[in-house]
Design brief:
about 850 residues; alpha+beta; five-stranded mixed sheet; 27 helices; about 20% strand
């Protein structure tokens, strides 16, 4: 038939949509209708008798459902009232539609709400909805519900929000449009038990049901694609009404979104009902089956985190909901979070205070038993959200929603803590002057961060409360004077303080007693860690207390201090042992006298010190300070003692090295050893001594240990003296070692010897020492260069290598030149290239006298084969 109709030039076939009418028909008839529908869709054009998204629908509804409507004036009043409510919403930036637009729409739609047209139009393509007839039936049910006897007369414009889905007729109109039976039963209408009805009870209005009805209407379109549902702002725009607040519907929307099981979030922040359960149901299931021990543990951990001692000033440790038998108040001050009860103070806190010695070492935070009881349910929701978050993948589309739920539960937990813990109890003196626990209001404030997470700083609030109560002093140094008096009392009347016992017998007590009483006496104010030590420093600095031996402390007033001296070493010359001293009189009035004597005895007859800064090489100086006015009694003499240091020099010797020791500034005796033993039992030093390679016991160094002694003063020093050298036997081969012999080991003392070595005498004294050594050794020297005088007036001469001069000849040459140039005392320097000796013995004596370092004698000493007679 359809194929033939298409070929005719003028032919129209009208087909009525029978899908809804035959939903309950037999299977074969239903299949026939379905086949017919598919055939029609190929070439047919759909004809809608009434466009549900046009104003025409309101004309039909008015004619069919109402016999009479109010006059224009009454409608104007309604439009003005709605425009006013819309204006408030616009100013709150909740909706974008202008009041003027809304008022115009009311005139066209009255007595229906303008949103009715838009909401019905959303599901007009639902095949279960029979367009005009279906609209008439649905709206007629709504109108009947509005005018039902007993319903409050507060409806100005009729809309889908006024549906009563507890009415079976109304439910039968809506439910066939979509498979949302569970959504309606659990979330919208169930004789007062559905989630929306629970919200109504909490808000004392029907805001929850109205929000749910609007969202249900926006969820009836088939397919439930991205166009289904409404945003929060769109829902509120549908519900704005005179006499109702915007916050009422906002709160209802938020509560329903949190509690409903079948309400889902779509793209663009839209919300809609669907057949499937949402994440709320899973969260509720996880919350219900959470083990009670885990919930209790989480509450304890969260409370410990809320009241965590970050600065640690008012308290240092937190015990959250502890067993009373497990509480230990030794150590730092503790904050104890206890379960609120009906007693004031709480029973747990009273038992702690009565049964413990350290009554001033804890405080208790508690509050409302009613709000505390709510913590369990809130923690279950928070626990469930965190558990589900751990189970979700990082890219799960539900993760954002669950994070919002977690953040909301976290905020709810902290705000519940605010109300549950609003009191602190701290130790102190009651109005009846007995010791006990005192109450102070605690004002906690939850803060939200930019990331949506919430935080609550209990420590800061507790510090503020304790400061307000006068129990905590955060800056003890600023209140030091008052705290010192509070601690030590009035010593002049032998009256003790809060931490110091009465009586003169207790003017000096162990400091540990003070710190112990600070934890025991409920009257004493709390200080930050180190606060008592700071007060002690301030009291000793200002002379109110004094440190005594064995960790004790003494309170004043004190007898006048005895005179004494303060000596400062400002500098020391290590080469001479001389010390520069600065001397000051202490506790001796304004015109003190200082008497000083070398040694250990001094009295008032000793010389008075006039120069308070001086340099001395004395080993001991005795000082006595006198106050001429007698205000301060004369103290004991003070003996200053210098420090003895040991120094040494070494010089070449035919047998090794010659060592000379010096005590700076001086010493009565020096003892030394060369074998590493204790120098106290060593050889008395009488002059330079020689260390030989033999003393090194196969090594290359000799350990010289020395001690300088002068009465009670001592100075010790250890020196390492190098006595033997080694060099490779073969050039470039460090493993082949050749030991260098000493001069005495190498030289035959009976044979003539020649020394070929640069010897430079750069002073007149050293030159004549050279001449004397040559004379004593009967030796002759080859002089490369000799100079008499200095600068432009100097006489310089070079001598040939074959010319050898004796010591006497060398002296004669110099004296002749001095006479010739008219400078009898002219400076003389000389450069010796070689020296010839009659015997090796003379060579050794020459080297010892001039302290010449010959190095390896094999390189510079030669001897003929014949022996000298």
């Amino acid at each position: 038939m359809f194929s033939a109709a298409i070929k005719l030039p003028r032919c129209m076939v009208v087909v009525s949509n029978l899908s809804a009418a035959y939903q309950g028909a037999s299977k074969s008839l239903a299949q026939t209708v379905a086949n017919l529908s598919q055939e029609v869709r190929r070439s047919a054009k759909e004809i809608t008798p009434v466009a549900l998204n046009s104003g025409e629908v309101f004309d039909i509804l008015r004619r069919r459902l109402f016999t009479k409507l109010p006059d224009r004036e009454a409608i104007d009043k309604v439009a003005v009232a709605y425009a006013k409510s819309m204006d408030e919403a616009v100013r709150s930036r909740v909706v974008a539609k202008t009041p003027e637009q809304f008022a115009d729409e009311i005139h066209r739609c009255y007595p229906f709400h303008p949103s009715l047209r838009d909401l019905v139009a959303m599901f007009r393509n639902n095949e279960g909805f029979r367009q005009t007839r279906g609209l008439m039936r649905m709206v007629s049910r709504v109108v009947r519900d509005v005018f039902r006897e007993g319903r409050p007369n507060n409806v100005y414009l009729i809309g889908v929000q006024h549906m009563d889905l507890n009415d079976s007729d109304m439910r039968n109109e809506v439910l066939p449009l979509a498979n949302l039976h569970n959504a309606v039963a659990k979330d919208i209408a169930d004789g007062g038990q559905a989630h929306a009805e629970t919200v109504d009870k909490e808000l004392s209005s029907d805001a929850g049901t109205q929000v749910a009805n609007v969202l249900l209407s926006a969820s009836l379109m088939q397919g439930f694609d991205s166009k289904a549902g409404l945003t929060k702002e769109q829902v509120i725009e549908c519900l704005i009404s005179p006499g109702r607040t915007i916050e009422e519907f906002q709160n209802a929307f938020d509560a329903l979104l949190k509690d409903a099981w079948y309400l889902h979030r779509g793209s663009g922040d839209v919300v809609y009902f669907a057949q499937q359960e949402n994440i709320t149901k899973r969260l509720q299931s996880e919350a219900e089956k959470a083990p009670q021990p885990r919930i209790d543990q989480n509450i304890q951990e969260r409370l410990a985190l809320v009241f965590k001692a970050v600065s640690g000033k008012a308290y240092q440790e937190v015990l959250a909901l502890p067993e009373i038998g497990a509480i230990d108040l030794s150590g730092p001050r503790k904050l104890i979070v206890v379960s609120p009860d009906s007693k004031l103070p709480p029973e747990t806190a009273e038992k702690l205070f009565a049964g413990l010695t350290q009554k001033n070492n804890f405080l208790v935070v508690t509050g409302s038993p009613t709000h505390f009881a709510s913590l369990d349910g809130v923690m279950r929701r928070l626990y469930a959200a965190e558990k589900v978050l751990r189970d979700l993948r990082a890219d799960d589309p539900l993760r954002s929603e669950v994070e919002d739920r977690r953040n909301g539960a976290e905020f709810e937990f902290l705000t519940t803590v605010e109300h549950a813990f609003n009191r602190i109890w701290y130790p102190g003196r009651k109005p009846d002057r007995s010791m006990g626990l005192l109450e102070q209001k605690l004002e906690l404030r939850t803060a939200k961060g930019a990331d949506g997470r919430s935080s609550l700083s209990g420590e800061a609030a507790i510090e503020t409360a304790l400061i307000k109560a006068g129990k905590f002093e955060p800056n003890p140094e600023a209140k030091a004077d008052g705290l010192i008096t509070r601690i030590s009392g009035n010593p002049e009347t032998n009256q003790g303080g809060q931490l110091w016992p009465d009586g003169s017998a207790f003017n000096t007590i162990p400091w540990s007693d003070i710190t112990a009483r600070a934890k025991e006496n409920p009257q004493f104010v709390w200080l930050p860690p180190g606060g008592l030590e700071a007060i002690k420093r301030e009291a000793t600095k200002t002379g109110k207390w004094r440190d005594r031996e064995n960790g004790k402390i003494q309170r004043g007033p004190f007898p006048p201090d005895m005179t004494r001296v303060s000596i400062t070493e400002e500098g020391r010359n290590h080469d001479t042992g001389a010390v520069t001293l600065s001397v000051q009189a202490v506790d001796a009035g304004q015109t003190p006298r200082i008497h000083m004597a070398e040694g250990t005895f001094v009295n008032g007859s000793s010389p008075e010190l006039k120069e308070l800064r001086f340099t001395t090489t004395a080993l001991r100086l005795a000082f006595l300070v006198i106050d001429p006015k007698g205000d301060h009694p004369t103290g004991d003499a003070y003996v200053w003692r210098n420090r003895i240091t040991l120094q040494h020099t070494t010089s070449p010797s035919a047998d090794g090295r010659k060592v000379e020791l010096f005590a700076r500034p001086s010493a009565a005796a020096i003892r030394y050893t060369t074998d590493g033993s204790n120098p106290r039992e060593g050889t008395v030093y009488e002059g330079p001594f020689t260390v030989t390679p033999f003393m090194a016991r196969g090594g290359s160094e000799v350990m010289v240990r020395a001690i300088a002694i002068d009465g009670d003063l001592e100075g010790t020093e250890d020196f390492r003296i190098s006595v033997q050298k080694a060099k490779p036997k073969e050039p470039g081969d460090p493993d082949s070692v050749d030991t260098v012999p000493t001069l005495r080991e190498y030289v035959d003392e009976t044979r003539a010897a020649n020394l070929t070595l640069d010897i430079r005498q750069t002073s007149t004294e050293s030159f004549f020492a050279l001449a004397g050594a040559l004379k004593d050794a009967k030796a002759q020297a080859v002089i490369a260069q000799m100079q008499v005088g200095l600068g432009q007036e100097a006489f310089s001469m070079r001598l040939g290598s074959d010319l050898r001069l004796s010591g006497e000849g060398l002296s004669n040459v110099v004296e002749s030149i001095r006479v010739a140039v008219g400078q009898p005392n002219a400076d003389v320097t000389a450069h010796v290239k070689a020296v010839s000796f009659p015997t090796g013995r003379d060579l050794i004596a020459f080297v010892e006298t001039l302290k010449v370092d010959v190095g390896d004698p094999r390189d510079c000493v030669t001897q003929p084969q014949t022996r000298s007679t």
